[in-house]
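Session log. Operator J.P. requested a structure for one protein chain; no other inputs attached. Running the standard single-chain path with token output.
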Amino acid sequence: MELHGKIAVVTGAASGLGLATCKQLAAAGALIAGFDRDEKKLQALKSDLGDACLTRVVDVADETSVKDGIAAIVAAFGGVHVAVNCAGVADAAKTVSKGEPFPIATWNKVIGINLTGTFNIIRFAALAMSKNTPDADGGERGVIVNTASGAASQGQIGQAAYSASKAGVIGLTLPVARDLAPQGIRVVSIAPGLFDTAMVAGMPDNVSQSIIDRMILYPNRMGQPREFARLVQHIVENSYLNATTLNLDAGARMQAR
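Structure written below.
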């Protein structure tokens, strides 16, 4: 799909992978709809991208919030062609710790945002995409890109909820792609490895370097958000990519902790 003039919804748009994706797609000529819960950071995104961007406070785990957010973008821009799911949390807890079980509130939060939130965006964005005029080249109406994780299959201690949520994202990729193929909508997920985002920003330098040395094959560094964003652009522009999950991890293999 040619990005110039297309409308792209990005969740988690105010920081990290989502922010880099907004900037990358805007540079390619797309109109950006940035969804996030952080209104102040959304204002900064809007200021940066100007008229090519609309922002809205959206809780992806809440059906009404997502439905209204997509409707607002369709009303403002006229449709949705691309949806990129970057919203996510990584709250951790052990299954049993200090005589207490895993807090179910933590489980529900992580699953609600990472998995249910991803599917909320998928279903309402896909509904909007299904009303698009198909591209003349191949009948394409839309592209959905989800964020999974290497933790889906290599979860570390304390990552039961996070790993389950990301495994769920991988698991829904094929059936949703099958569901949406008749409408000319592609679905692809990216499984990032260790990336330099807010989730790891608080680590001391010696801790982060130890993780890099022990877990990342080559190049021996954490990924940069712009590298994720470039892959998103490639997925959108390469119409033969569909129904798969792409690892973006420099050959990383997670250890238990």
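Operator note: The chain has one domain: 7-247.
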